[in-house]
Amino acid sequence: MIPTQSMIARQQQPGVKRLQEKNKKAATLISFLLIPLSGLITDIYIPSMPHMAQELHRPEGAIQLTLTLFLVSYGLAQFITGSLIDSYGRFRLTLVSLVVFIASNFVIIFTKQIELIYAMRIVQGITTGFIIVAKRAFFVDVYEGEERKHYLSLMSIVWSSAPVIAPFIGGYLQLYFNWQANFYVLAIYGTLMLILEWIFSGETVPVYRSFKWNAVLKDYRFMMRSRTFAYGLLICGLCYGTTMIFGLAGAFIIEHQMHYSSVVAGYGALVMGLAWMCGGFLGKASLNKAFLPKLRRSNAAQLLFTIGMIVTAIWLQNLYTLLLFAFLIHVCVGFIFNNYFAYCLGRFPQMAGLASGLSGGANFIVTAVTSYTVVGILRPQSQAVLGYGYLAMGVIALLILQLLVKKQQEPV
């Protein structure tokens, strides 16, 4: 273990429940159940967004902002949550965050004020930041070597289950109930996880680190000196931002422009989640392949499919062509993300919480800024315009990968 500026061993805190060996498998399962939480929060109400706009008497952009505010707060929170969970432990902060998260859902359910919904989405971003960063660090705390590498790669696949399941559920919740039903489901899920976490989990932090701003900034600078790591944060954000463009605009295109129901919009988002999961499985299967060449090939395929999406729209664009090309593009970015995010999380095992926070925080900040900017500028209402958004993200990723090739002095 390489010592860093802020790594100061302290005695185990008295009264803290440690993870017991007999509960290791159960705690691992709970961690995998919590990892998709951020995806559930973003995707479950996507089919309901047009209906939220109608019921709350707000424009599309105002409802899309509820998603962007979550992403921004979730990303920003992780810059500090990583340091806090390294200093004060994972277990108690996870429990407190779950309690606050559950309460925030009930506030959203019983209000019609968009400003209060904005505030609660920010609260959810912060609490989810604590939960997810702690659970990502769990795998680094508990596992080592090839086993750790396996779980970190598997974690990305499990995380991708949320975009598959959530919009499918959300479409039917909107059909049979209303948009508030999505947040009832989130509150119930959070309550179940709180109970399981309390019973089976426990503290896993191996060494408590002193929380000092100067030391934390020094550690961030230490990590960011790795060009492969720093560029990886941008690449991962662009990849997830590509999928979020569909999340922000897809339901409005399918429901308002193509005149399908919220259930169809939910199935469309489900297809995109399956694409991301397929990319994750392909990424895990290629862990032993040369790192940069496989990323560049996937990016090239991404750009090829994007151009095909735009050109095809000249004479043919419907629900099927929209979903087909978007599916292929999402497979490519899911592949890149799985490989690169697993690398970033495992790059600095001596400060797992900090690395998890920086990786996740940067990823979601880049995701939120790029996706909301692209959608805000282009306002996609068709297959072709959605393709232009995908093209912008793919070209930026291509340029960063080219820079990475020139800076590949350090081994990956």
From TrEMBL:
Any single Pfam family the record assigns to this protein: MFS_1
UniProt cross-references to PROSITE patterns, sorted A to Z: MFS (PS50850)
Keyword Transmembrane helix attached: yes
Entry membrane topology: Multi-pass membrane protein
Domain Major facilitator superfamily (MFS) profile, residue spans: 27-409
Alphabetically ordered keywords of this record: Membrane, Transmembrane, Transmembrane helix, Transport
Keyword Transport: yes
Gene3D superfamilies registered for this protein in UniProt: Multidrug resistance protein D (1.20.1720.10)
Subcellular location: Membrane
Membrane-spanning ranges: 26-46, 61-81, 93-110, 116-139, 151-177, 183-208, 229-254, 266-287, 299-316, 322-342, 354-375, 387-405
Protein name (database record): Multidrug effflux MFS transporter
Organism: Niabella pedocola
